[in-house]
Specification:
By secondary structure, this protein is an alpha+beta fold. The chain contains 2 helices and 4 strands, in the order βαββαβ. A hairpin with a 6-residue loop joins strand 2 and strand 3. The radius of gyration is 16 Å and the shape is elongated. The termini are close together.
Length: about 120
């Protein structure tokens, strides 16, 4: 089996809201715009499904349950600029989707792209 690329990468994960805080559904065009902006920085993305999570409101003590679209992209570990661009983009998404915050994660991953033959 021939390997095309074997290198250390950074995996960036962003959780995009599927609903606004009032419970209304986020418009499809807004999600598409967000995905296009992710692709503009990272050259592509992977949709990893809709995930569910919950958090406790520190002011009221209430548990808030949410559904989010999990999106991830890998970038070469030597490329620091995209990580900063993704972090800045996550902050812009908080405003764009009218959220208090957006989940953003960066992790080291060992990625191998395996070619045919």
């Amino acid at each position: 089996m021939k390997k095309c690329v074997c290198d250390l990468f950074k995996k960036v994960t962003i959780l995009l809201p599927t609903h606004y805080n009032d419970g209304s559904v986020v418009e499809e065009y807004k999600l598409e715009n967000a995905l296009n902006r992710i692709a503009d920085i990272g050259g592509g993305y992977t949709l990893d499904g809709v995930v569910c999570g919950a958090w406790r409101n520190p002011e009221t003590g209430d548990i808030k349950k949410e559904t989010m679209q999990k999106v991830w992209v890998v970038v070469n570990d030597a490329m620091v600029a995209p990580i900063f661009a993704f972090r800045r983009l996550a902050g812009e998404f908080a405003t764009y989707f009218n959220q208090e915050c957006i989940y953003f994660e960066v992790e080291d991953v060992d990625v191998q792209f395996i070619s045919r033959g």
